[in-house]
Design a protein that fits this description.
It is a single chain. With 402 residues, the chain is of the alpha+beta class. The protein has three domains: 7-88 and 103-119, Butyryl-Coa Dehydrogenase, subunit A, domain 1, CATH 1.10.540.10; 125-247, Beta Barrel (Butyryl-CoA Dehydrogenase, subunit A, domain 2); 251-391, Butyryl-CoA Dehydrogenase, subunit A, domain 3. The chain has twelve helices and nine strands. The strands form two sheets. Strands 1, 2, 3, 4, 5, 6 and 7 form a seven-stranded mixed β-sheet that branches. The longest helix is centred in the middle third of the chain and has 37 residues, at 249-285. It is globular, with a radius of gyration of 22 Å. The two termini are 37 Å apart.
Length: 402
């Protein structure tokens, strides 16, 4: 692994940091998160037009930059530093890779250039409580997380040459505002149940979308109600699917989940580094007993422990981002390390800021909510680690021959 950055990566990181520093102060972040879309449309347009972030990891033939997922992860690290409220994660790390991997050539050619240009945002509609399972981050994703052919989730019915969806999905990242929804649904009834992905325009007839109240407002989520909504199957339809055949959907979801975990890990590292930086600045200014509290040994030790965790998480996140292009799946383990570092850094920030740090209005709580919200969606940490250990077969008993 080459730990150095290319000139292009350095340029992207530097330009993005300068832009976000001007556009994403705590006040601007709160105002954008509280808006109808949950993000700043002007900032999203700037990120798309000036830096091409939505298409950073898309092939050039579809209007993208043709960069590996590593570049997207590094860009998300900078976005995480400022908790930039944008649909980048839902669009570029979750929905677009599924379109690229499973879509027909007509679907890719019709949708991916619009995504790369920032004209179209997209969201993966999976029940929020099952998102980590669907992406194979906390366990195998072959279960009934999308409905299982029984009550709950979304069901798909094929009749008169058309697919129609019926059901409800909540906690969908950017689901209330995305222009395109990639909906996971079950079809085939109980005996021949299989999970498929469908494309639903945001303005489809019979689709009702409501924004939900969330702990972390910078990660807006929506509830979708589908009432006989006409949908387009993502990819080619198989004529005679065998029982249990998922049409290749589940393996692709697992692969996309691992890459998304690496991207999320870098984003969490950026947030942890920023909140640690702000805490160090505060303890250097705040005086107690005639001296800065940052000069007290106990405070130094606590911040040193946080620094070590953040640097260890950064190493793991960078390796995971680099390994995705080589087929290694270590994103979940890196995400666990990064989420724990962010939670620790945010908790220490709240405490070391003293009384003001315990008020909801202080920016430390934006990071604390991000850490908690991400664990609820993509964790928790102990389950991420447990699944990584089981995948590596660490818990299997091996016979030793003497």
């Amino acid at each position: 692994m080459d730990a150095g950055f290319t000139a292009e990566q350095d340029d992207i990181r530097r330009t993005l940091r300068e832009l976000l520093r001007k556009r994403c102060g705590p006040g601007e972040v709160r105002a954008a998160a509280d808006g109808p879309a949950g993000h700043d449309p002007g900032l999203w347009e700037a990120l798309a037009a000036r830096l091409g972030l939505p298409g950073l990891a898309l092939p050039e033939r579809y209007g993208g930059a043709g960069c590996p997922a590593t570049d997207l992860a590094l860009a998300c690290e900078e976005a995480g530093r400022f908790l930039a409220p944008t649909p980048l994660l839902a669009t570029a790390a979750l929905a677009a890779p599924l379109l690229l991997a499973l879509g027909t050539e007509d679907q890719r050619a019709g949708l991916l250039p619009r995504i790369a240009a920032g004209e179209l945002t997209a969201a993966l509609a999976v029940p929020g409580a099952a998102l980590a399972t669907a992406l194979a981050l906390t366990g195998p994703n072959g279960g009934d997380w999308a409905g299982g052919g029984r009550a709950g989730g979304v069901q798909a019915r094929h009749a008169d040459g058309r697919w129609r969806l019926y059901g409800e999905v909540d906690q969908v990242l950017d689901g209330h505002s995305a222009g395109l929804l990639v909906v996971a649904a079950h079809t085939g009834g109980f005996a021949r149940s299989r999970t498929l992905l469908f494309l639903v325009p945001g303005d489809a007839a019979g689709l009702v979308r409501v924004r939900q109240t969330t702990l972390d407002a910078t990660r807006p989520q929506g509830r979708l109600q589908l009432r006989e909504v006409e949908a387009e199957l993502l990819g080619e339809e198989r004529q005679r699917p065998e029982p249990g055949d998922q049409g290749g959907v589940l393996p692709v979801l697992a692969a996309v989940g691992d890459t998304a975990a690496a991207v999320l890990a870098c984003e969490a590292v950026g947030a942890a580094d920023r909140v640690l930086e702000r805490t160090v600045e505060h303890v250097g200014r705040r005086e107690q007993f005639g001296r800065p509290i940052g000069s007290f040994q106990a405070v130094k030790h606590r911040l040193a422990d946080v620094y070590v965790q953040v640097q260890a998480a950064r190493s793991a996140a960078y390796y995971a981002a680099w390994a995705t292009a080589r087929g290694e799946r270590v994103g979940g383990l890196a995400l666990a390390q990064a989420l724990q570092a962010l939670r620790t850094a945010a908790a220490e920030a709240v405490q070391l800021h003293g009384g003001i740090g315990f008020t909801w209005e202080h920016e430390a709580h934006l990071y604390f909510k991000r850490a908690t919200g991400d664990e609820l969606l993509f964790g928790p940490v102990h389950r991420l680690r447990e699944h990584a250990a089981r995948t590596a077969r660490l818990f299997e008993r091996r016979e030793v021959t003497v």
